[in-house]
C-alpha cells in the first residue's frame, strides 16, 4: 500500500515538473480530452439529427391519418353539395301555366292581328263588291216558324201570319171571345198537369194558355190575339189546328 502511494506521488510530481518546464507543450491527457470532446460533439450532433428525423417522421405519421380523415369527410360533403332539383308547389305550377297561357294568347292575338291587317290591305286594294237590292214581293209570306213544346202532348209553331197547334187529343169544341180577342179550343182528354202560360214572339199572336179541367175530362187551349178573332181563320186537319191571319 505504501509502495502504491509512493508510485502515484512520483507520477504526479513528474507531470508537475514537466508542466513547469514547458507550459505550452501538449500533453497526452489534453489530446485525449480534446478527442473525447470532439467525439462527444459528433455523437450529440448525430443523435440530434436522428432525433429530428425521427420527430419529423412521427409527425408525418401522426398527420397522415388526420389528412386522410379530413379527405374522407370532405368527399361526402362535396358529393352532397351537388345542386338540388327545384321542387315546385301547386301554386307555382298554376302560376307558370297561367303565364304560359297568357303568353300563348298574346302571341295568337298578334298573329291574328297581322293576318287581319294583311287581309284589310288586300281588301282595300280590291274593288268593292256590288250590292244588289231586291225589293221584297208583297205576295211572299215569311215562312220561318218558331217552334215550342208547351207540354209533352202540346206543340206549337207560329210566325206573324199563322199559328198551328199539334196534339194527340181530339177536339171537343171551338169558340171565340171578341171582347177579349181570344180563340178558345177544348180537347177531350184526361191529363195530369198544371196550367201552363207562355208569351209569343209574334205581331199577331200575343199569348197562349193551356188549362186543365181534369174532373170534366178535358183541357183548354186559349190563344190571345192582337186584334179581333174575326180577322183570323181557323182550320182543322188530322188533330192539327191552323189559325191564319186574313186581315
From TrEMBL:
Start and end residues of each AMIN domain: 166-235
Domain of life: Bacteria
Protein name: AMIN domain-containing protein
Origin species: Malaciobacter pacificus
Amino acid at each position: 500500500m505504501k509502495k502504491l502511494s509512493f508510485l502515484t506521488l512520483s507520477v504526479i510530481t513528474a507531470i508537475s515538473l514537466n508542466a513547469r518546464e514547458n507550459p505550452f507543450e501538449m500533453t497526452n491527457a489534453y489530446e485525449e480530452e480534446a478527442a473525447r470532446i470532439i467525439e462527444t460533439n459528433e455523437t450529440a450532433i448525430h443523435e440530434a439529427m436522428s432525433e429530428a428525423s425521427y420527430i419529423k417522421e412521427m409527425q408525418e405519421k401522426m398527420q397522415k391519418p388526420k389528412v386522410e380523415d379530413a379527405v374522407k369527410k370532405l368527399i361526402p360533403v362535396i358529393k352532397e353539395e351537388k345542386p338540388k332539383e327545384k321542387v315546385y308547389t301547386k301554386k307555382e305550377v298554376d302560376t307558370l301555366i297561367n303565364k304560359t297561357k297568357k303568353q300563348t294568347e298574346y302571341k295568337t292575338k298578334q298573329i291574328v292581328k297581322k293576318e287581319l291587317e294583311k287581309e284589310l290591305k288586300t281588301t282595300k286594294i280590291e274593288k268593292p263588291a256590288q250590292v244588289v237590292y231586291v225589293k221584297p214581293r208583297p205576295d211572299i209570306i215569311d215562312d220561318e216558324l218558331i217552334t215550342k213544346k208547351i207540354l209533352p202532348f202540346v206543340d206549337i209553331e207560329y210566325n206573324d201570319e199563322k199559328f198551328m197547334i199539334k196534339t194527340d187529343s181530339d177536339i171537343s169544341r171551338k169558340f171565340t171571345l171578341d171582347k177579349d180577342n181570344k180563340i178558345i179550343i177544348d180537347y177531350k182528354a184526361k191529363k195530369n198537369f198544371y196550367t201552363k202560360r207562355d208569351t209569343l214572339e209574334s205581331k199577331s199572336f200575343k199569348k197562349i194558355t193551356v188549362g186543365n179541367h181534369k174532373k170534366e175530362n178535358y183541357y183548354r187551349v186559349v190563344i190571345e190575339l192582337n186584334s179581333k178573332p174575326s180577322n183570323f181563320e181557323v182550320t182543322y186537319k188530322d188533330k192539327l189546328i191552323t189559325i191564319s191571319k186574313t186581315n
